[in-house]
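Entry 0007
Protein: S-phase kinase-associated protein 1
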Amino acid sequence: MSMVTLQSCDGEIFEVEVEILKQSIFLRDMFELLGVDDEDEDPLILPNVDAAILKKVIQWCTYHKDDPPPPEDDENKEKRTDDISSWDTEFLKVDQGTLFELILAANYLDIKGLLDVTCKTVANMIKGKTTEEIRETFNIKNDFTPDEEEQVRKENEWCKEK
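Output (structure tokens):
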């Protein structure tokens, strides 16, 4: 079992199986490019991921290590937000800040499965809500004037459900 050392942006060190981290295209390419193996003593520094988030990413990758790779961009696949596993649903019961940091880390590390499930979670937080409810959910200040709001409403009338 080949291990690699990762260092978060806040200096915490993680020893992780290479196989687990191969879900990250970024890390997989880095391992191949640099010829990283368990003989290397220098950690791979991840300047964009802090320890708390890296720990969550490793936990997710460990659980999903035997999953088949997600399809590239399957045009025929319906974009569904209701196909999140119960494990992922529980795993992603975190505060919004953590959820958004996980999205950023999944994007940076190029972990498609984690990026998909975190984005679907955010989509589910929005689904079926009014503009005001979305603003409240994400603590977004309304900076439109009443006239601007009316203009946006008129421009988007076509997308209201009938």
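Curator remark: The chain has a mean pLDDT of 87. The longest strand covers residues 3-7.
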